[in-house]
């Protein structure tokens, strides 16, 4: 049977602009731009075409995103039914060309995934566990109480690592926050020291949040200053205060940690708001999954 009517063709912007008649059921790969106030365009190396997003229904897409735009072209306007992100290249395909080159970073010139020793070590420690907690407001007594409960629950089987992500204060950054944060970290260190098994066995990684002391919204965000963390590091030697985002390597696993209010930022900058606000968290999680599923 002839399925040509159900197929879409990948076109360039130049092809659309050069067509005097309506062009239906096409897909164009390009970047979303806003060349005029309130009007969005799709740009590729061959040209720029204005977009009509009135029929667009779901997904969070921001300006400067590279997308596959599906729709039809008529009267010098590309009417978009849906956006989608270009498919990512599977890591197996990349490795077939580049071998075991280390793209992740660190001292090794080869990828940790190729290390037989690290893989064996990982298999021998299959019960290893990471604990991630975010928005750890250390200035709140209730939070410290819950941390007590968490450490008590894990004391019989200490996790390999605890990851604490900011913000570490309930109040925005202000004049007295540095001194307050030093005291809060000291209180956390005292709690950790009450559980010797965790204090001696687990590692502690701290990733600053957007409202923690630091240079505004610049990324990567530097670690909390040494004068803030010095006392904590003396009491808890197995602790690391790192950047946001940061990269973590555990045996053959490569992990990226990024603490950011992505939902709020994407909602503020999306080209068109989804028809249902109930699905917004799902849109963001689906977006992240699409980019990360092959790596």
Structure description:
This is DNA polymerase II subunit 2. Keywords: DNA replication, DNA-binding, Nucleus. GO terms for molecular function: DNA binding. The protein has 295 residues and is of the alpha/beta class. The protein folds into two domains: 4-86 and 270-292, Beta Barrel (OB fold (Dihydrolipoamide Acetyltransferase, E2P)), CATH 2.40.50.140; 127-260, 4-Layer Sandwich (Purple Acid Phosphatase, chain A, domain 2), CATH 3.60.21.50. It contains nine helices and twelve strands. The chain has helices at residues 13-17, 91-98, 116-124, 141-154, 177-193, 196-201, 226-235, 262-269, 280-292; strands spanning 9-11, 23-36, 39-44, 47-52, 66-74, 77-84, 130-134, 161-165, 203-207, 239-241, 246-250, 253-257. The strands form three sheets. Strands 2-3-4-6-5 form a five-stranded mixed beta barrel. The chain has a four-stranded parallel β-sheet with strand order 7-8-9-10. Strands 11-12 form a two-stranded antiparallel ribbon. A hairpin with a 2-residue loop joins strand 11 and strand 12 (253-257). Helix 4 (141-154) runs parallel beside helix 5 (177-193) and helix 5 (177-193) runs parallel beside helix 7. The protein is elongated and about 75 Å long. The model has no long low-confidence stretch (mean pLDDT 90).
């Amino acid at each position: 049977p002839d399925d040509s009517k159900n197929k879409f063709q990948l076109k360039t912007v130049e092809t659309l602009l050069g067509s005097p008649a309506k062009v239906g059921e096409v897909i164009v790969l390009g970047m979303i731009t806003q060349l005029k106030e309130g009007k969005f365009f799709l740009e590729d190396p061959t040209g720029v075409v204005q977009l009509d997003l009135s029929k667009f229904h779901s997904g969070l897409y921001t300006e400067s995103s590279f997308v596959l735009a599906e729709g039809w072209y008529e009267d010098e306007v590309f009417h978009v039914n849906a956006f989608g992100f270009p498919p990512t290249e599977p890591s197996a395909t990349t490795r077939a060309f580049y071998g075991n080159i280390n793209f992740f970073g660190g001292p090794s010139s080869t990828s940790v995934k190729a290390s037989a020793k690290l893989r064996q070590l990982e298999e021998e420690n299959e019960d290893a566990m990471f604990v991630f907690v975010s928005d750890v407001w250390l200035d709140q007594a209730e939070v410290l109480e819950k941390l007590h409960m968490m450490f008590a629950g894990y004391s019989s089987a200490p996790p390999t690592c605890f990851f604490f992500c900011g913000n570490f204060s309930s109040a925005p950054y202000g004049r007295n926050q540095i001194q307050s944060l030093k005291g809060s970290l000291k209180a956390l260190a005292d709690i950790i020291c009450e559980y010797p098994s965790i204090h001696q066995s687990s590692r502690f990684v701290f990733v600053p949040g957007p409202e923690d002391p630091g240079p505004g919204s610049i990324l990567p965000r530097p670690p909390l200053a040494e004068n803030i963390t010095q006392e904590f590091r003396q009491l808890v030697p197995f602790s690391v205060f790192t950047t946001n985002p940061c990269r973590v390597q555990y045996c053959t696993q490569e992990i990226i940690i990024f603490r950011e209010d992505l939902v709020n930022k994407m909602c503020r900058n999306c080209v068109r708001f989804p028809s249902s606000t109930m699905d917004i968290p799902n849109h963001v999680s689906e977006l992240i999954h699409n980019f990360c599923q092959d790596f």
